[in-house]
């Protein structure tokens, strides 16, 4: 089986490693610099949250954002962790995915922390 890999020889992901752990497809992934890393056979597999009924990619312009001010803009350095979702990047806010879109945040579903 081929899969995208990411090496981090200077870091070992695991309990207490300092990176946010999430439950994903029956295992645990670690959010690290905008990537989802899954430890596997001496390297890390690159994972993405799949677009699904639980994590849609729809526009939800009526979503009442919690976890930040209404004028907050998600992006690099915004203070929320970037999470790959489908073919785009969302931001983890209070256990769910926010996606910046046309001046509002779309709600792209819940993420379970490990």
How far apart lie the N and C ends?
26 Å
> What characterizes the major β-sheet?
6 strands, antiparallel
What fraction strand?
Answer: 35-45%
Globally, the shape reads globular
What is the string of helix and strand elements? EEEEEEEEEE
State the low-pLDDT regions, or none.
none
- The secondary structure category is mainly beta
Secondary-structure map:
Blueprint: E1 5-6, E2 21-24, E3 27-32, E4 35-40, E5 43-47, E6 81-85, E7 88-93, E8 96-101, E9 104-110, E10 112-113
Antiparallel strand pairs: 1-5, 2-3, 2-10, 3-4, 4-5, 6-7, 7-8, 8-9
Task: Outline the structure in words.
A hairpin with a 2-residue loop joins strand 2 and strand 3. The protein is globular. It has strands spanning 5-6, 21-24, 27-32, 35-40, 43-47, 81-85, 88-93, 96-101, 104-110, 112-113. The model has no long low-confidence stretch (mean pLDDT 87). The strands form two sheets. It has a six-stranded antiparallel beta sheet, with no helix packed on it. Strands 6-7-8-9 form a four-stranded antiparallel beta sheet, with no helix packed on it. It has 114 residues and is mostly beta strands. It is built from no helices and ten strands.
């Amino acid at each position: 089986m081929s899969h995208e890999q990411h090496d981090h020889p200077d870091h070992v992901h695991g309990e207490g490693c300092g990176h946010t752990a999430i439950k994903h497809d029956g295992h645990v992934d670690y959010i690290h610099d905008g990537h989802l890393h899954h430890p596997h056979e001496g390297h890390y597999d690159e994972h993405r949250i799949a677009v699904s009924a639980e994590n849609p990619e729809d526009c939800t312009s009526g979503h009442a954002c919690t976890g930040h001010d209404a004028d907050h803009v998600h992006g690099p350095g915004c203070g929320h962790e970037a999470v790959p979702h489908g073919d785009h990047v969302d931001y983890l806010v209070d256990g769910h995915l926010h996606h910046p879109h046309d001046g509002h945040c779309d709600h792209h579903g819940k993420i379970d922390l490990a």
